[in-house]
Amino acid sequence: MATTADFKNGLCIEFNGDLYSIFEFQHVKPGKGPAFVRTKLRNLKTGKVIPNTFTAGVKIDIARVERRPYQFLYKDDNGYNFMHGETFEQISIEEEIINAPQFLKEGQGVEIIIHADTETPLQCELPAFVEMTITYTEPGEKGNTATNAWKEATVETGAIIRVPLFINQGELIKVDTRSSEYAERVKS
After folding, report:
1. Would you say 180 and 100 are in contact if contact means Cβ atoms under 8 Å apart?
2. Taking the CB of residue 71, how many other CB atoms lie within 10 A of it?
3. Residue-wise pLDDT tens digits, 70-89
C-alpha cells in the first residue's frame, strides 16, 4: 500500500477495478480545508484519460508493471506478433494496445508494458521517433507558395503522412510516433 505522497508521473495504480497510469498530478493545499491531490489518470486498457481528486494521505494500491523489450516480427489473423529480445519468447497482441501500429515494420524494437501479476500485455510503445523511407510522393515545385507548404507522402509501411514540399520519393525521414507527424529529414 502506498499513499498520495508516492505519486509520480507514470506510476501505475489500481483504481475502480482497472489499471491506470498517472498522467499528471498536482498537490493542492488550500487555505481552508484539507490538502488534496488533483490527478489525470490514463486507463491502460482503453487509453481514456479521466480527471480524479484524491484526499491527501489516502491509501492506494500500486500495480506492478514491467517494461520489456520486444521486436516486431509480423502481423497475422491473431494480431501483431512480437519476440522478447532476451528470452526469445513470442507473444501476440491486438492492434488496440499499440500506440502507432501504422509505423511498425519488421525488426522494429518496441517496449511492451506487462502487468507482472497476471502476465498480460497492457500497452505497446514504439520509440518516440522512427526512421521511414518515402515510397511515394508527388514532386514538389519551387515557387508554388510564399509560406511553408505540405504535401502527402506514403512511407514504407503504407501510412500516409504530411511532409514539406522539398521531400522527395526515396528519402529517409524521421516520424514522430506520438503525433504521426514529420519530424526531420535524416542526413546520410
Report:
1. yes
2. 16
3. 999 999 988 999 999 888 99
State pTM to two decimals.
0.76
pLDDT tens digits, one per residue of 85-130: 888 999 999 988 888 899 999 999 999 988 888 888 888 889 999 9
Cell of 50: 479521466
Sequence-distant (≥ 6) Cβ neighbours of residue 160 within 8 angstroms: 152, 153, 154
Beta-carbon contacts of 165 under 8 Å, excluding residues fewer than 6 positions away, are 140, 141, 144, 145, 149, 150, 151
Residue pair 167/139 in contact (Cβ under 8 Å)? The answer is no
Q: Which long-range contacts (CB under 8 A, 24 or more apart) does 41-49 make?
A: 41/13, 41/15, 43/18, 43/19, 44/12, 44/18, 44/19, 44/20, 44/113, 44/122, 44/123, 45/18, 45/19, 45/97, 45/122, 49/23
Written as nine digits, the cell of 181 is 507527424
User: Any idea of the CA torsion for 9, 14, 20, 26, to the nearest 10 degrees?
Assistant: -40
Domains of the chain and CATH, by start: 2-62 (2.30.30.30), 65-125 (2.40.50.140), 129-185 (2.40.50.140)
